[in-house]
Amino acid sequence: MVRPNNASIGTAAINNRPLRDRRGCELFPDRIDFGILKEGVTYGAEIEVKNVGIDACRFRIR
């Protein structure tokens, strides 16, 4: 029985990128402008976090 090996194709595409390009997260939008902030007020915004690397990413939301 012959099984196709698709892993080598996907791995080759990833391995050609520099290590710094294979790690990290992207945030959308990449910039948020809250304007003038007032003391004692909580501000918030909706963002999307996308893992663009080959490793699992951890992050903390406060």
UniProtKB/TrEMBL annotation:
GO biological process assignments: axonemal central apparatus assembly
GO cellular component, one term: axonemal central apparatus
InterPro entries attached to this UniProt entry: SPAG17 (IPR026173)
Name of the protein in its database record: Uncharacterized protein
Lineage: Eukaryota, Metazoa, Spiralia, Gnathifera, Rotifera
